[in-house]
Amino acid sequence: MNLILIILSSLIGYLIGSISFSRIILKIKAPNKSMDNLQLKLDNSNDEVTVMMGAGANKASIILGARWGIVIGILDMIKVIIPLIIFRYFLFPTEPYFLYVAAFGLIGHNWPIYYRFKGGRGHSVMLGSLIVIDWLAVVVTIILGNLLGFALLGSLVFASYLWLWMMIPWFLLGYFDINFVLYAILINVIAILSQVPEIKLYIQLRKEGKDKEYKEKITEMTAQFRGLQKMEDFFKSLGRWRLVIGITILIGTVIIYIFLPLLS
Question: Which structural domain range is residue 209 located in?
């Protein structure tokens, strides 16, 4: 691969990824509201807590409603899908430059140069990129990741991120290409680093005994988290059967990954 083209594709990805549709639409729909200083009032203590979710679709949905959150999420997907398609299928169909566009598009979204490096968390960007890179991987890992996270681990957090972790062995076994594996590792590292402010806030709130109320408030105010919470509650209601289902899904997942090289 050409070093200049690697730098160019990375730069293009970063600059496009830095476009913040959540801020653009918020400025149009609610110019008096701030994406950076969204405060959440806790009922039990009457304290106000700064929401550390990142300037993305979920945070925008709290301010503008679920419909606009969905619109912003779709726009964030499109902003990476278009350059990825151009790089992968038109400009360099035999070279993995599109992976650099995808990776740096995510970096740009999470740490945008246009907004003092304060961005979102990149879920829509990752999803949009992976649809172009390997749409089957998205479908399989999201379904299995969510089922395993809820059924086997009983955790909303694990269900939200397990599919992303599963991308690493998927690309390793399915492609045997170091570029794809490094991309999968990199997006996981970026996802973790972008969560640092939220992790710090959660630790602080837990020390103060406010973490449960904060989680409940955030869940109530975002459609995505409400859906995930309902799934978590459903699997927990199954009792011991939850683990039986989880182990069955785990065995099925292992079988799928064993035969993945044959399917690729």
Answer: 3-263
Each residue's pLDDT tens digit, 230-245: 888 888 888 888 889 9
For the CA atoms of the chain, what is the radius of gyration? 19
> What is the pTM for the complete model shown?
0.90
Q: What sign results for the dihedral spanned by CA atoms 81, 85, 88, 92?
A: negative
* Residue from 182, 167, 156 nearest 126 by CA: 167
Quick one: tokens of 74?
């779709």
Distance (Å, rounded) from C-alpha 197 to C-alpha 49?
A: 13
The count of structural domains within the chain is 1
- CA–CA separation, 246 vs 220, rounded Å? 27
The better pLDDT of the pair 262, 245 is held by 245
Identify whether the C-beta of residue 88 lies closer than 8 Å to the C-beta of residue 10: no
Q: How many CB atoms lie within 10 A of CB 232?
A: 18
Q: What DSSP element (H or E) covers 176?
A: none
Bridge partners of 40, per DSSP, are 49
**Cα distance between residue 49 and residue 117, in whole Å:** 22
